[in-house]
Every structure is written in structure tokens, then in C-alpha cells.
Amino acid sequence: MTEQVVPVDERGWQELDDAQLERWLRETDPRLLQKLWEAADRTRRAYVGDEVHCRGLVELSSHCRRGCLYCGLAVSNRGLERYRMSDEDVLACAERMRRAGCGSIVLQGGEDPCLDTDRVSTLVRRIKTTTELAVTLSLGEREPEELWSWRQAGADRYLLRFETSEADLYAMLHPPFAPGALSRLALLEVLRRTGYEVGSGVMVGLPGQSYRSLVRDLRLFRELDLDMIGLGPFIPHPATPLGGLIPRAGDVPGDATMTCKLYALARLLCPFSNLPSTTALGTLDPAEGRELGLRRGANVLMPNFTPPAFRERYRIYPGKTDGSTIPLTREGLETWLGERGRKLGTGPGSRRRRG
């Protein structure tokens, strides 16, 4: 690619037009990509600093009512041994996180009907009573009344990825559960009004995804003023309709380099947002995937504290890393981050604001 625009400062990156952003997504020149990585890292350091905030992940249920065409938790996957963790199991994980220096707990699961208003509210209250952890929920599409109740119980954040800004592509991948249900974008507005810190994001390399749609995704991150942006490659589970999909020539690749381009551009366009280096990136590159994310804009890690007996049954995609490359103790995390020029963050790690 020739005559690529390389802005001299962070403001210049934010002023790129759609055509220029698409060119960066298509860029393959290692020399120019290095400039992108360096710009994202400078911006990360200037706006959110060298602290890496750790949010401990607990996968509390593998039951799901939805039939998404790529996810291993889909209700159609009859071969999956399902589970639900008890509150006591979750609270034990929360205590391990607290001792390890995590500032937050992420309660993640499928859209499990048994994770109802009362169950989740009780669990959130118990976590807030026994620890100082911020609580993030990632439990899929829920009724506004449920979201309100969980916020009143003390939940601080909600993560709901819109996956793609292309409505038709989203509808193909995520068959609706009930007619007339709110879209994910509408639910993100509900979450904002309800007082949550709001996290969302997309998958990279979806079938039929275009570079132009990824540019629209990047613009939408900024328009939604997201507190956290979650990005990961598309990795379909083999037991789903898209499990044997063969990428077509010209499709957006769902590889580590393309994912990191989204990390870097998201940091440059949304400099104050929290950006985790995700498990899925670590799955593509177990040796240094998460480290690459931290060098290219990310400032959050989400080490997995799910007990191994449950973790083995939460296979949303093949080859899902168990997070073993990330230490689960305070000393281990401080050492691992220190070797990479970073330091363990303290407190809940809420998004910084201008001024």
C-alpha cells in the first residue's frame, strides 16, 4: 500500500476519514503497521497510564436459551455437559481474586433462565458485602427490569457486545429469542440510562463482514462513548452451523494481526476507554497473544478464575485457552507485568474521564 497517511500525533489519528481508516485495516506493510502499534501504545500511556487493571473472570453457567450459529453454548449443542456454579463456588473465586489484586469480578454466562433477577441480585449483594470488588455482569440480552434490579443490587458494569453494526449480519448470526425484543444497541442505551459503566465490542473476521463495516464499528465505539471495548477474533465452535465454515477469498481475516489493528485503532479513536487484551487473542497466539494486545493499546487483563472442573465445560469456541499463561496470584501478576514494563493497577479500574 502506498502513500499511507501516518499522523504525527494522536489528534491526527482521530481526524482520519473512513477511507483512511479502511486503508489502515487493509495495511500489510510491517513498517507502517509498526507505526500504528507505536501510536496506539503512546496514546494508551498518555491517557490511561502504565497500570494494567485485572478483572477476574468467573464463567458461572454454561446453560443458554439462545441458538447463536457459532457459539459452543448454543442450545442446539446437545453434546455439551452443562453446569451451574453455586453461589459459594463463585464467592470462593471472588476471594481468590481479591487476594490476587484484582479490582473487579466479571460474572459471565450464557442466557440461562435460572440466572434470574433474584439469583443474580443475591449473588451481587453477597460479593459486594464480602469484598471490595467492582462487579461486571456479562449475561447476554436481558429485560430492562432485570438490568435495573441488578444495578440496584450493586452491579457496576455490564458487558454486551453488539458484535457487528451490520443489522442483517447480526440477525443471521443471532436468531432472535422472542419477537419484539430490544436490539443490543437499544439495550446499550438502557444500560447507560440505568447507570452502568457500559462495555461492548465486536468480533473480527465474521462471515460476510466487510472492511467498511469494521470502520462503522469503530465509529460506533466512539459514538456510544463506551467505557470498555471488547474485541476478539471470530472462532466458531465445530458443533455449530458455522463450525466448518471455510473463509472466502477477500473476507476480513479473523487473525491476530487484524484483531490487533482493531485494538490499536480503537485506542486511538477512544483514548480514555478501557480495552482488555482478550482470551480469544491469547487462543490465536498462546505464546504472546495477550502481550501483543497490551503492546498495541490494551490496558486490562481478564485472568480466568473459573475452577478447572467447570472451565473445561465452558467451551464457547475450540482451543479456548485456560489462561494458564497469566498468573493468578498478586506476586505472579506483578512479576509478569513488571517484566513487560507495566504495573498492576489498584482499585476498580473505572474509566478515566476528560479533565
CATH class category: Alpha Beta
Distance between the termini: 38 Å
Structural class: alpha/beta
Q: Oligomer, anyone? A: single chain
Number of domains: 1
CATH topology: TIM Barrel
- The global form is globular
The stretches of 5 or more residues where confidence is low (pLDDT under 50) are: none
Cα-based radius of gyration, to the nearest Å:
19 Å
Q: What features would you describe in this structure?
A:
With 355 residues, this protein is an alpha/beta fold. The protein has a single domain, classed as TIM Barrel, CATH 3.20.20.70. It contains 14 helices and 9 strands. Strands 1, 2, 3, 4, 5, 6, 7, 8 and 9 form a 9-stranded parallel β-sheet that branches. Helix 5 runs parallel beside helix 6. The protein starts with 9 loop residues before the first helix and ends in an 11-residue tail after the last strand.
Write the layout of secondary structure elements.
Elements: H1 10-14, H2 18-26, H3 30-48, E1 51-61, H4 87-100, E2 104-109, H5 117-130, E3 134-138, H6 144-153, E4 157-159, H7 167-173, H8 184-194, E5 197-204, H9 211-224, E6 228-233, H10 256-269, E7 276-277, H11 279-284, H12 289-295, E8 300-301, H13 308-311, H14 330-338, E9 343-344
Parallel strand pairs: 1-2, 1-8, 1-9, 2-3, 3-4, 4-5, 5-6, 7-8
